[in-house]
Amino acid sequence: MRGWCAVSSSGSLSLNFGLYPSPKAANGACGCCFHHGFPRKVVGVKSNNNTRKVHRAISISCCASASNSNDKVCQAEIENFVVVNFYRFVFIKDPQHEVAKHLTFLKGLNIHGRIYINEQGINAQYSGPSEETFAYVKWLKEDEKFSDILVQTSPALNGHTFPKLKLRYKPSLVQFEGGVSHLPLLDPSMRATPLAPSEWRERLEAVDNNDKASNSNPSTDYILLDVRNGYEWDIGHFQGAQRPDVDCFRRTSFGLSPIEGVASDLLSNVDKQKTNIMMYCTGGIRCDVYSTILRQQGFQNLYTVEGGVSHYLKTEGPVKWVGNLFTFDSRLSLPPSTYNEETLIEASMTQQALENDKFAKCYVCGSQVSELRHRNCANLDCNLLFLCCANCLMDLRGCCCYNCTTAPRRRPVLPGFQRYKKWHMYRDLEV
Question: Which residues form the signal peptide (predicted)?
Answer without folding.
Answer: none
